[in-house]
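In this supplementary section we document a worked example of the pipeline. Step one takes a protein sequence of length 351 as its only input; no multiple sequence alignment statistics are reported here. Step two produces a three-dimensional model, which step three serialises into structure tokens for compact storage. The input and output of this example are shown verbatim.
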Amino acid sequence: MKRTQRFAGLMMAAVLLIGGCGPAKSTTAGGPKSDPKPAKTAPLNQNSTPGGNNVIPLPTQPATQYPMEFKGSDGKSVTIAKEPQRILSLSPTFTETIYALGRGDRLVGRTDSCDYPAEVSKVPSVGPMMMPSVEKIAELNPDVILVSFMKAEVVAQIEKAGAKVIQIPSAQSIQGSYETMATLGKILNANEGAQTIRKAIEKDIQAVQEKVKNLPKKTVYYVAGFGKSGDYTAGANTFINDLIVAAGGDNVAKDVKGWKYSVEKLMEKDPEYLFIGNMAKLADEFKVTEPYKNLTAVKENRFLEVDDNLINREGPRMGKAVEMIAEILHPEAFGKKAAVLERRFAGLLVA
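The serialised model returned by step three reads:
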């Protein structure tokens, strides 16, 4: 249990910060002290079809008119005088989106956690996401710096160097993710690109939902933290909940909001499937720890590691994340055998 106590907090930090599934979160040994603040979008319930069957035709998007005023999630208004040519991203989700929008050639800086797509490795890093090097940022001379959350004192230091910091809240739903992409598209004058990405994601999700619509929903629990320090999972108002629902799953933690859960509820509900992120390497620990080892999913090998980056980044690969989950829950709908999928997803995940 010592290793569990020591690393449960690290797992939550990695999931919530590197993945980008929430704004400000301070963590203890077992998880966040407070629940993530949802973006101002309605979370999807278990009977909705996030991103899929309710596709609404989108109008052609006009070019962004500069100068433009943008009010960030920190309440500050930033004036963007002209179309940004030198972009610095302090969010892995935003970095992926910038490339998908066709603005990757304008990215002059990133964080150590920004690792997708592969070509981003050629872009200079300014260090850790939460504590970037102000000196390196100043050297790169960006027009805009895009962040999902940053401590006020760090923002102040960066702004002293003359850069414009734009804080965009992390999405807590698939719908909120579309809105974030649209916001990035507007800032970077890539409005058509944002619309194209949305249509592609909606098409991917709709294809998945068509395959699983007549199949019974499988119960799922996402392990974000466990042990003596507390149990943490993706509640009803989280992005991961939306992914599970869209994939034909039933999130057993839909009865709570935020991330805090109880081991008693988990044991009582005994879900058919358990997911855990692959970043903290805690799957083996979970399987031998009381009382989790007594869960049916553990005993019957339906406890699977999933790609933290794929399911926690609210970006262009959302459709692929939904497909990955659906293939695990409903392999027969994709012409695959469960045993093959277990080997595929247990310990090694799709990119």
